[in-house]
Amino acid sequence: MLILGIESSCDETSIAIVEDGKNVLSNVIATQIEIHKKYGGVVPEIASRHHIEDISYVLQEALEKANKKITDIDYIAVTNKPGLIGSLLVGIMFAKGLSFRYNIPLIPVNHLEGHIYSTFLHQDVKMPATVVVASGGHTSIYNMSENHELNLLGETQDDAIGEAYDKVARMVGLSYPGGPSIEKNSVGGENTLNIPIPNVSGYDLSFSGIKTFVTNYINKCNMKNEEYRINDICKSFEIAAVENLKRKIVKACLDTNSKTLAIAGGVSANKHLRNELYTSLELKDVEIKFPIKMEYCTDNGAMIAAAAYYNLEYKSDIEKTFDATSTKEF
Ligand code: KG4
Ligand code: ZN
Fold first, then answer.
1. How far apart are CA 24 and CA 68, in angstroms?
2. How many whole angstroms from 111 Cα to the centroid of ligand 2?
3. Ligand 2 centre from 267 Cα, in Å?
4. Is 134 annotated as a binding residue?
5. Are residues 267 and 140 in the same domain?
6. Residues 110, 136 within the same domain
7. DSSP symbol at 61
8. Does 287 lie in the same domain as 301?
9. Which residues contact residue 219 at a Cβ distance below 8 angstroms, ignoring those fewer than 6 apart?
10. What is the CATH number of the domain that holds 48?
11. How far apart are CA 183 and CA 57, in angstroms?
């Protein structure tokens, strides 16, 4: 089965062709990072305009790379929520147009589910699994059962982990997106701030305290006219943010007897996070799966196609007609 996956919820226009939910035949991503960098974050109106400019070229390239014609496609999958409404609408209307013109059925995909299924591309995930989305908009921990039912165990009560990375980067003058900038600048830094790990009950998380600790530290240095080392701030922040997430992930895996830990979203590209989970003794009996390629960590069409494939297999109530304001939850 060939599924064309369309993703345009934020600042990446991406279209992929995926066979049987696993084999990525093409995954074309037109990123707008350089455009939004100068504003320090994504400007929604500008993002929508660039999606409109790019999307038909992205489709053409995705078909060419996969050596397929649009008429070879069995289903079109498109992110319908959550995301920037103007950006989502570009992908949705484009998908609807294709679906209408070529009579190909359409499947709406929740962006978070897309991230979760990015860990299923080119690899097997054994159930039950603890699945984690760690991105710029979300930090959520789920349990996935044998029949792919998702049960939310906990989520951030304030900032998402990627959002905290982005905000701290901006504070110290590093470029957007903050995750890769902080990762790079933590090299050679020391954990001099020793930021306390928030104490939140259950599987819920909080990142705003870690971020505020950094703000207060910088303000204190400025008041005292003392210089601070950006590398130390990056290192200290990264250690605290990752440890915070790791503790909840470990608890979820052990409490639910998970066979697999699957972790996705932009922050899953982070080397320190990967290393901490791979070397955790508490997780020694749990198979750890990250997206197999870095390009599947951040927003991409392949994950949307994969999610649609598994939704077709496991969900009985797939919507065939919908719009960006659909209230259907997964
Ligand atoms: O999944 P994604 O592309 O978009 C959302 O759905 O939010 O995630 C983007 C987020 C940004 O906050 C970015 O700073 C973060 O992922 N990110 C990283 C890394 N690469 C991207 N955070 C930490 N380390 C990285 N290497
Ligand atoms: Zn995303």
1. 13
2. 6
3. 10
4. yes
5. yes
6. no
7. H
8. no
9. none
10. 3.30.420.40
11. 32
- Give pTM, 2 decimals: 0.92
- Tokens 């939004």 sit at which residue? 36
Report the number of distinct structural domains present in the chain. 2
What tens digit of pLDDT does each residue of 135-144 get? Answer: 999 999 999 9
What would the DSSP string read from start to end of 133-182?
Answer: EESSS-EEEEEE-TT--EEEEEEBSS--HHHHHHHHHHHTTPPSSHHHHH
The CB of 114 under 6 Å from ligand 1? The reply is no
Q: Which domain holds residue 67?
A: 2-117+295-314
Residue nearest to atom 23 of ligand 1 (CA): 179
For the residues 10-29, what does the mean pLDDT come to? 97
Task: For residues 86 and 184, state if they share a domain.
Answer: no
Q: Is the pLDDT of residue 164 over 90?
A: yes
**Torsion angle (degrees, nearest 10) of CA 296, 297, 300, 304:** 80
| Same domain membership, residue 173 and residue 81 | no
Q: Which ligand is nearest to the CA of 12?
A: 1
Q: Which amino acid is at 228?
A: Y
